[in-house]
Amino acid sequence: MASSEPLLGDTYSVTPRSKxxxxxxVGSTAVGVLLFVAVVLCFLSMRVIEPAAAAVVVTLGSVxxxxxxxxxxxxxxxxxxxxxxxxxxxxxxxxHVPTKEGLTVELDVACLFHVxxxxxxxxxxxxxxxxxxxxxxxxxxxxxxxxTSEAEASALYTSGRAxxxxxxxxxxxxxxxxxxxSVESVLLKAVVxxxxxxxxxxxxxxxxxDSERMQFIIAKERQEAQRKTIEAQxxxxxxxxxxxxxxxxxxxxxGIEATKEISMSQNTKVVFVGNSPSSLPVLMxxxxxxSPAAATVATPPK
Length: 302
Known about the structure:
This protein has six helices and ten strands, in the order αβββββββαααβααββ. 45% of the residues lie in helices and 24% in strands. The protein is α+β, with helices and mostly antiparallel strands. The protein has four domains: 42-85, no CATH class; 89-193, 2-Layer Sandwich (Tetrahydropterin Synthase, Chain A), CATH 3.30.479; 197-245; 248-294, no CATH class.
């Protein structure tokens, strides 16, 4: 009958349970670490580009050929992004520029521009992130100075203002658009003239207003003279028409009728009748006159 007791000289391999549990724990920890690293790398690879913007990807000094548009992107976790806004930007400048007469005026200028979307990478490589101070500001100042030196001061606030704005826009577009910057418009906001020139302009405007006012007065007097001439002509025509039908006999008869009516009133009066056929009665009234019985009424001539 075989014995179950181990014999001397036999070799047995025994693995402890504690050692097996330790190996399993190490494996699970490694998996957890790997998952954690993967999640961290995923987060590090995420890039969010704001609306109306584009970004250049730079990986260890190398610039990507493609730019990132607005939205969520996953890139190399060791890469960085340089965003560029595509919105319209405003640049304002106060320039002291000379005019054609040699006067120095203060001219406030505003420029509206934006980065061309498909040339963001070129702007980054050639101009950098501070492209506004690198090229836009000096080019605007140079263009303003160049154009104002060829124009008179009066052109800055008269009809030549729009023409100068158009020339500035054309000049800046010619220089900046090949560099990836689109110029939308250039505006002349304010012009501050020297005191001497301002006083001269005000004096000229005042003289022009005085001249216009004098012309108005002269025109008014001329119209008044014409009105009086027409009025006098009308009176003369009226008298001519009336005098054609009035005779000496009619006038005498009207005078006699008027004298008769006056003599019949209650007022005290004296009537003297002339002794010639052309004489009209003469009336004298007053409290010192004679009584009504003394009044004599003439009869019309026969």
